[in-house]
Amino acid sequence: MQLLYNNKVVIFDRTDFGASNLSLPAGKCRYNDEALSVDCTAHSVLYDILSNTYRPLMVQTDVWCSSGAVNSNGTLIQTGGYHAGDHKIRIFSPCYDEDVTCDWIELPQNLTVQRWYSSDHLLPDGRVIIVGGRRAFSYEFFPKSFNNNNDVFDLPFLKETTDPKEENNLYPFLYVLPDGNLYMFANQRSIILDYVNNKVVKEFPIIPGEKRSYPATGSSVMLPLCLNSPTNLTVEVMICGGAWGGAYLEAMEGVFWPASRTCGRMRITDPEPKWVMEDMPLGRVMPDMLLLPTGDVIILNGARNGTAGWENAVDPVLNPVLYKTNEPDPKKRFAVLNPSTIPRMYHSSATLLPDGRILVGGSNPHVRYNFTGVKYPTELSLEAFLPPYLATQYAHLSPIIVGVEGQILSYGQQFWITFNLGFPGEELMVSMIAPSFTTHSFGMNQRLLFLDIVEIERVSVFGYKVTVFAPPSKNIAPPGYYMVFVVHQGVPSHSFWVRMQ
């Protein structure tokens, strides 16, 4: 899934499982599929949040287990996949209701190396870095550099973190740091990569306990960056869930080991960083972790036993868990929330929406589309999870944004937001979130910034104006589109979109 700035969500799945349940528009078919000689069904949709409708899209090659990032102008850059799609670069540019012709475009230019189970991240210079993948111990960029059209850079770290027979280093967790370098986590290890000079500049302690990368799949977020002191930022990474080494091989034999219950937090800006471990209320493999506008973390989807992969997990975890990031008492940080009734296992996904809900979809944990006769059938539904701040008893605390000074922002500039609020309290924050490309339990490019507030003014009986600083640099907020929320006493407004450039 990828949320776009026009409030639509691109969703897609593999193409080589045969016909889907959704037809392409008349006359559109694919003729290069591995499963069907002619396939006139859709394997991608564009979901419209506001109207709760969707329309079919057409991908040309197999996008199974691929990756992506939205570039600075709001176009989704989507890379790699399986078989005929493993070297491909595709783009999807947002369009509006009056234009129903926008669709996937596959570029004639290819990736240098096959990228299957790789991770992407938007960089401060506007390029996308594509890291790793199965048997791909390297990284490359899109667009390519001007002086070399086939530049690919070896990364021994990825080879060192591969486990025999089960890997456990795929879909590495990536975060751009305030100094412009790239934090990278795979398996149980993490480094800082200077991708400009192709040099590892720091290595961190090993996270205790289980493996954390696909197929022993945990999830991760970089916790919010507070910009009230942007020259002295604390950067903290959090990783939750996963599975023991060997769990994948056991699951292939029908033995499902318990998933990890632990989360680790590490302040990577400390002089001597170390992991601080906590226990979740529920063990979980294949969780999705999303940053909420409040700065808290929602953990949802996944299973209690097994690993990622076809039929490799059992006992779905139906209850989301809220993690209160700044709660000082560790015993009070986790809260178990109301459950779904739908298992969300392998190939499920989730993303934050502009109104603060979480869109959840998918679950396809067996070979071929199958809706009957299996324990966890293919799941085609979408559902919306409402975090606690959307409960009706808090509605009076939610700000209603009525105006914004500008929607295209320069770095470090001041801008104001006007909003209405009937029952004002003292606690007010402005958060800015880059929407994630979510697949295989990792929200790539997900990023939350708390903006530095200059002043808050009352301008009418129920009207207020908050003046804030935009992020100070491209390293802190890579150029592109962000959702901005006003958060009052833990309850966010509906967001508005801004573009950093």
Comma- or semicolon-separated keywords:
single chain; 501 residues; mainly beta; 42 strands; 2% helix; globular; signal; Glyoxal_oxidase_N; Galactose oxidase; GO-like_E_set; Ig-like_fold
How is the secondary structure organized here?
Blueprint: E1 2-3, E2 8-12, E3 44-48, E4 53-57, E5 67-70, E6 76-79, E7 88-92, E8 105-110, E9 119-122, E10 128-131, E11 138-142, E12 152-154, H1 156-160, E13 173-176, E14 182-186, E15 189-194, E16 199-203, E17 219-222, E18 225-226, E19 236-240, H2 247-252, E20 262-267, E21 276-279, E22 288-291, E23 297-300, E24 303-306, E25 313-316, E26 321-323, E27 334-336, E28 348-352, E29 358-362, E30 382-385, E31 400-404, E32 408-409, E33 414-420, E34 428-434, E35 437-439, E36 442-444, E37 447-450, E38 453-458, E39 463-469, E40 480-488, E41 491-492, E42 496-500
Parallel strand pairs: 18-37, 32-42
Antiparallel strand pairs: 1-2, 2-3, 3-4, 5-6, 6-7, 7-8, 9-10, 10-11, 11-12, 13-14, 14-15, 15-16, 17-19, 19-20, 20-21, 22-23, 23-26, 24-25, 26-27, 28-29, 29-30, 31-33, 33-39, 34-37, 34-40, 35-36, 38-39, 40-41, 40-42
